[in-house]
């Protein structure tokens, strides 16, 4: 095998891996119990290709979740650039995060393994950094008072992944976000 052929095969394998992860993201969002054969079909690969990349269902679930969180944590600047209001960007970003986490909760046991917990723990720092950017923009805009800890805000916003995944839940989420922003306009109390 020549170096050119090997490089081409590696690129194709990398494309297949991403296609599988993206198909899994989409299908797991609809049905956490979707058959892996359907994921392979959606990705345009054979079952053998899927299993070469992800020997178990848990491996695929973890890869899809990690891909989603990594993608989200790098989008704070992009979301801020898309909106004229930092508050609107903050709300969009947290609604996207909550959708990912609701999917995670639907995936059950696969995300309770030691490997999953390590991955979730590793995502904390980049998630907090993304929230810090959003908070800084909101402080500059005057919609959040200075001094709030981004980690505290993540905990406060965690209600979003507990609301129902329907129109009533979305409406409840918007009401709760308004209440959060009302509270965040007041500087934090000293510990």
What does the model show?
- The chain folds into two domains: 1-55, Orthogonal Bundle (Arc Repressor Mutant, subunit A); 63-191, Tetracycline Repressor, domain 2, CATH 1.10.357.
- The protein has helices at 3-30, 36-43, 47-53, 57-73, 76-82, 86-106, 114-141, 150-157, 167-184.
- With 191 residues, it is an all-alpha fold.
- This is TetR family transcriptional regulator.
- Residues 14-72 form the HTH tetR-type domain.
Topology of helices and strands:
Layout: H1 3-30, H2 36-43, H3 47-53, H4 57-73, H5 76-82, H6 86-106, H7 114-141, H8 150-157, H9 167-184
Q: Nearest-angstrom radius of gyration?
A: 19 Å
Assembly state here?
A: single chain
Low-pLDDT runs of 5+ residues are none
**What is the helical fraction, as a range of percent?**
over 70%
Q: Find the CATH topology of the largest domain.
A: Tetracycline Repressor, domain 2
Report the biggest beta sheet as strand number plus sense, adding barrel if it closes.
none
Beta-strand proportion: under 5%
CATH class of the largest domain: Mainly Alpha
* Helix/strand order, N-terminal first: HHHHHHHHH
Structural class: mainly alpha
Distance between the termini: 65 Å
- What's the tally of helices? 9
Q: Which architecture of the largest domain per CATH?
A: Orthogonal Bundle
CATH superfamily of the largest domain: Tetracycline Repressor, domain 2
How many runs of DSSP E, i.e. beta strands? Answer: 0
The domain count comes to 2
Organism: Amycolatopsis vancoresmycina DSM 44592
GO molecular function: DNA-binding transcription factor activity; transcription cis-regulatory region binding
InterPro entries: Homeodomain-like_sf, HTH-type_TetR-like_transc_reg, HTH_TetR, Tet_transcr_reg_TetR-rel_C_sf, TetR_SbtR-like_C
Pfam family, one: TetR_N
């Amino acid at each position: 095998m020549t170096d050119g052929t090997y490089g081409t095969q590696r690129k194709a394998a990398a494309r297949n891996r991403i296609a599988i992860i993206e198909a899994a993201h989409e299908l797991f969002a609809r049905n956490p119990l979707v058959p892996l054969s359907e994921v392979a079909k959606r990705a345009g690969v054979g079952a053998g290709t899927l299993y070469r990349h992800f020997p178990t269902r848990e491996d695929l679930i973890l890869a899809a979740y990690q891909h989603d969180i990594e993608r989200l944590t790098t989008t704070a600047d992009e979301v801020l650039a898309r909106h004229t209001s930092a508050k609107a960007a903050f709300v969009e970003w947290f609604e996207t995060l909550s959708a990912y986490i609701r999917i995670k909760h639907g995936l059950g046991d696969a995300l309770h393994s030691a490997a999953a917990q390590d991955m979730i723990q590793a995502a904390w720092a980049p998630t907090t950094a993304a929230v810090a950017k959003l908070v800084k923009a909101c402080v500059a805009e005057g919609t959040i008072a200075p001094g709030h800890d981004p980690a505290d805000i993540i905990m406060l916003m965690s209600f979003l992944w507990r609301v129902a995944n329907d129109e009533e839940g979305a409406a409840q989420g918007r009401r709760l976000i308004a209440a959060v922003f009302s509270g965040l306009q007041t500087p934090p109390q000293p510990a």
